[in-house]
Amino acid sequence: MNINKVLLYGNLTRDPEEKALPSGIKVTNFALATNRTYKDKDGNKKDTTEFHNLVAFGKTAELIAQYMKKGRPMFAEGRLQTRSWDDKATNTKKYRTEIIVENFQFGPSPMGGQGGGTYTPSQTEGGPASATDKSAKIDTIEYPTEEINPEDIPF
């Protein structure tokens, strides 16, 4: 059995860019930054940031382009895909690894609300969803109200 699954929670590094394929299917490109805090061998606290390129299609792409902006938090679930093309200017082959978004969840609202919603494409959707498609399921989630101290985490 093979598994190609990516789970990310981070902040958008730029506004999503929505385009349409010749077939009419919407495509949205955006990037997420994820942070990692750890202690080095001397016990000093270190922070690192990773940047991830993501691509969404169909109704997922439309929702992300409509509601997400630079700096907003987001949870994304998807798969890795690497594409390649020939760069005619330098006569070299170029590669780009991206995360194809399959499900996502909005992060907390910047207005301090508990908001957030999950979008999972319906299993019955055969093709791209239209703007009037009511099969999108949006649920609210409850976030913890107490602050978590990173020093309390045992790893």
Feature tags:
about 160 residues; mainly beta; OB fold (Dihydrolipoamide Acetyltransferase, E2P); five-stranded mixed barrel; 7 strands
Structure description:
By secondary structure, the chain is mostly beta strands. Helix content is 6%, strand content 45%. A five-stranded mixed β-barrel has the order 1-3-4-6-5. Residues 123-137 have low confidence and may be disordered.
List the helices and strands and how they pair.
Elements: E1 6-12, E2 17-20, E3 26-39, E4 45-57, H1 58-67, E5 73-87, E6 92-106, E7 118-119
Parallel strand pairs: 4-6
Antiparallel strand pairs: 1-3, 1-5, 2-3, 3-4, 5-6, 6-7
Q: What's the short version?
A:
6% of the residues lie in helices and 45% in strands. It is mostly beta strands and 155 residues long.
